[in-house]
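Dear support,

We are seeing what looks like truncated structure output for some complexes. This example has two components. We would appreciate it if you could run it in full and send us the complete token output so we can diff it against ours.
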Amino acid sequence: MDHPPSDFASQLCFSHSVEFVKLASEEADIVNLGQGFPDFSPPEFAVEAFQHAVSGDFMLNQYTKAFGYPPLTKILASFFGKLLGQEIDPLKNVLVTVGAYGALFTAFQALVDEGDEVIIIEPFFDCYEPMTLMAGGRPVFVPLKPSPTQKGEPDSSSNWQLDPTELASKFTSRTKAFILNTPNNPLGKVFSREELELVASLCQQHDVVCITDEVYQWLVFDGFQHISIASLPGMWERTLTIGSAGKTFSVTGWKVGWVLGPDRLMKHLRTVHQNSIYHCPTQGQAAVAQSFEREQLHFGQPSSYFVQLPQYIQRCRDHMIQSLQSVGLRPVIPQGSYFLITDISDFKNKMPDLPGAADEPYDKRFVKWMIKNKGLVAIPVSIFFSVPHQKFFDHYIRFCFVKDESTLRAMDQKLQKWKAELTP
Amino acid sequence: MPRSTAKLVFFYLSFWAFLKMSLKFKNAKRIEGLDSNVWIEFTKLAADPSVVNLGQGLPDISPPVYVKEELSKIAAIDNLNQYTRGFGHPSLVKALSCLYEKFYQNQINPNEEILVTVGAYGSLFNAIQGLIDEGDEVIVIVPFYDCYEPMVRMAGATPVFVPLRCKPVDGKKCSSSDWTLDPQELASKFNSKTKAIILNTPHNPLGKVYTKEELQVIADLCIKYDTLCISDEVYEWLVYTGNKHFKIATFPGMWERTITIGSAGKTFSVTGWKLGWSIGPKHLIKHLQTVQQNTVYTCATPLQEALAQALWIDIKRMDDPECYFNSLPKELEVKRDRMVHLLESVGLKPIVPDGGYFIIADVSLLDVDLFDMKDSNEPYDYKFVKWMIKNKKLSAIPVSAFCNAETKLQFEKFVRFCFIKELVDKDFKADIINVKIWS
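Here is the complete output from our reference environment:
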């Protein structure tokens, strides 16, 4: 008796980051800088909001409206309406989903058909490719490429750019959607207005839907500005903007996300939603609504979490950068997001033959060796590239710096021990 | 080119560009025709606060105190605010494994044979997406919980319908056990293309609890045709006196081909937690896990931990009348009986359910004058419910919503009422549901 999986399930290989997270959990005494979640507390007001949601009105234990708990869709509409400069209707232009992950899935299933092309910028959050494939679409990759840096100067995510001619060449009559992720995971790039205008003009020229993953929109450093492409002229009507309560309020375990967009696109997402999970849990939504209401009152002020969090995280980032540099690792300074990537070329030159499968990219072997021998967990960056391009980017690993002070100090200890082992 | 011609050309090009643009923003084919939904329509109509809503299967009674307390306690625990294991929070899958091992002959591996999903709805979706392919046939028993048909179609498969048929016994009160499948008719639906059959016991909307013999007929066919069984058992604890819930996965030859779906929402009266689970053999569950990894990745952490704690409390006292798995069906049986009495007293003919949250009633005997809806080509029960909402301030769900196009007429005299409601306990002579309003 053979019960093969559906075609979709058979095409989708086991997630790579899941593999490394599992590996990390099997080793004792390690510092986990791999998966992207904070290990510090969420802000008090968010915790209180959740406590309020679970101990107040007992009817919050029951189903709410399928497309979003009304106070949440209302506050998302008003909050983001202001940011995007757009009149947003809570019923027509907002859909609440199970995390931004669920929002991405819903968007792909709603719009991508067999044979449709989907342009994905490399490096990419690893679910974009399998989600495109699951919808029968064909991923078309376009790389961010680093320009050479001055000797001694650290590389920065702003240095990694799209080639405009190459980008334009990827659009065909079969292009259905363009996936944008800004700030970008894993690189930390924050796309500039000029870069977004280029993408916008191509999307308009070729009549393409832009799906923009903006989960890290508040995690922007060094005075850079996050710009939502939906706010650019001509883009609201063709853009789906995805956000995450998990990354916004440091509560990744609540799994509340959303999509904002024009009704003519949103109605298709609603159809997928009502035929896949139908409702999202009520209390998490109530807590997110209350948290946004609090932020709306403090917006732009020093007391705003959206001001304090990036300030705190920037210090974490800077701490990590210094520590990594001290052992000869070369971090690429991210303009935003939870992550930075680090060049391990020097290690690749000094110890090219690390244990691993014959065709296993170097960075994967390096990470496994590092977990086992140095007690540090990171994620190999080649998994964020399409298979044919992995060999060109097998000399980077990704670290998450959204960590508590104690975690960063534990990282320092591991790195110092490592440094001591390097000096003869 | 003269200006008028230029204008014409411009107009033509713009129109063509607009047409092309509208085509590109169309929905993907997989959801073609799946946009309407009976709940969206009727929930809107019933949203008027003056309307008594006996439509949606949503308890308005409080969940048990200890369930609420567990969630409250967990809300204060820091690390439960971050991601947990994608296929199910460890303490939850362990609790589920412990609970269900009591019903299955073998131990259940919490990591490989259990998947936690976004409600039972999410389990249905993962199972269908993970196992059903384009061109497959899936047998759906009519009436059916309305999402089965669109989910099967979304996977590119063809639903094959087989109706439950009523064989009432004279003199005996009409009950959900009178509705059965004709074994020959059921057998005729199976063929080499049949990938799965979807079973729902206790059944929504009828409240039927399949007997051992009835399940054996289904099991025999599944084995004969090497078919999967997706068994939706969300109401598994809500079985009334004289009836017993059987798990088809425990029948010989069935474990290896069955996905059994459960629901925290229906188990603990917490539908808003949206947690469900699939239990089955590793070689099937792994495909549901693949779908999970590419859809939601993980479910909410604090709710899963709270559910685990609540389960442990009741697992430890399965024989105790205080255990919610025992106390809730007792509480609901009383409500069911009151509801049966109430519906009879206003001239409706209820079908007494053996399990579940719902009761269906034949409304045709009232012969209500639906004159202002005679032009609508909706089934009778749709018209009746809309009339009832408008004129009697009472909402329910038309049973033909649980039927495919071809069988709607067979069930259009029936309307579904939900009785897990506070007001069912109130004195019938009170104002809300009053015999007088029907005269």
